[in-house]
Design goal:
The chain is an alpha+beta fold. The chain contains twelve helices and 14 strands.
């Protein structure tokens, strides 16, 4: 008698091409194989999946090999990696959903699968999740930003969209599959250390109606979500929406989101930075983060200036008053040299 895992693998293999088209949508069929970049659905030709073959053995349908990494497995592994899952019970649940099978009785046991498992919440898990995302243009992630009056006129490689990012309730219960905006958290050298998730409503009109719609995984301390390249001036704030609001008004100025007051206070300073603008949220945590960060900057010989919104944060200001008014307010508080440098021409953002 086959184990539950083997039975699921057999059923998936009988529908190997359908599985590949769904979970490895960036690949294509070539003869008896499905060709794609890797098991995280990256475009490319390094990984190949057998679409036909015997019921068992290394040449069976559903077996795959990544020529670049040396990894190999079956279609259950593809579901796990492409969906960013870690527990086999979640993999089995997703496989059964795809195959339209009823829940098992009793529950399936957990088993180890790939030769290179990664810990939940680790850097590698965060990197793999971000790699599965797609550009945000035309997605609910872009709709979400537009609903907050944030317009992006340049490519934003540190933001991606995932249509079915798993959300696990903190008090237990089944995992939800929700659309999410993904943000890459990077160090000073541009290496990704973590991924931030903002779960969204299906139409992108707001954050998802869950208890904690924002979470991060990986190594955050000292790092952040970066927009633009730092030269000698940097704007730093807490939330992605807050920082993007100022970035919409100052698109030529580099900005960084620390993602929380505590993490904002601990960001690392790029070499050559001579002036730092700290975006303060109007709450006690925001004030404390500003004081700590400004003190650290001054100790490092960096001029630190505070930018304070009229309302709770700069996204509140943007939504209430518009981008032209936000630019005018920022002009009053920027160093004259920076005002001339970054706001000399209002351009598209000032219409």
């Amino acid at each position: 008698m086959q184990s539950p895992a083997a039975e699921l693998s057999r059923r998936l293999a009988e529908n190997a091409e359908a599985v590949c088209r769904h979970y490895l949508s960036n690949g294509r069929r070539q003869g008896h194989y499905w060709i794609v970049g890797d098991v995280q659905n990256t475009p490319g030709r390094s990984m190949y999946v057998r679409l036909s073959g015997p019921a068992n053995g290394s040449g069976a349908a559903g077996k795959w090999t990544d020529a670049q990494s040396g990894l190999h497995g079956d279609l259950l592994d593809i579901i796990r990696e492409s969906c960013g899952l870690h527990e086999f019970t979640d993999v089995a649940e997703e496989a059964r959903r795809f195959l339209s099978l009823p829940p098992p009785e009793p529950s399936l046991p957990a088993v180890a699968r790939l030769q290179t498992p990664v810990p939940v919440g680790s850097f590698e898990a965060a990197r793999r999740l971000f790699a599965m995302g797609s550009p945000i243009c035309g997605t609910p992630a872009e709709s979400y930003l537009l609903s907050r009056r944030i317009s992006l006129f340049n490519p934003v490689p540190n933001l991606r969209f995932h249509p079915t990012c798993y959300y696990r309730c903190e008090n237990g219960g089944p995992a939800l599959r929700l659309p999410a905006m993904l943000a890459a958290i990077t160090d000073l050298d541009g290496h990704q250390t973590a991924t931030h998730r903002t779960w969204l409503r299906p139409d992108g009109t707001d954050k998802a109606d869950v208890e904690t719609p924002r979470r991060a995984m990986g190594a955050l301390l000292g790092h952040g979500v970066r927009f633009g390249s730092v030269d000698d001036v940097l704007v730093a704030g807490e939330g992605i929406e807050t920082v993007l609001s100022v970035h919409s008004a100052l698109p030529a100025m580099a900005t960084l989101a620390g993602l929380s007051a505590a993490h904002l206070a601990a960001i690392q300073f790029p070499e050559g930075l001579r002036r730092l603008y700290v975006l303060r949220d109007r709450d006690p945590a925001g004030a404390a983060a500003r004081d700590t960060l400004c003190s650290r900057a001054e100790d490092a010989g960096i001029e630190a200036l505070t930018l304070t919104p009229r309302l709770g944060d700069f996204n509140d200001d943007l939504r209430r008053y518009g981008v032209a008014a936000l630019q005018d307010r920022l002009r009053l508080h920027l160093h004259p040299e920076d005002a001339a440098r970054f706001l000399a021409v209002r351009g598209r953002t000032g219409r």
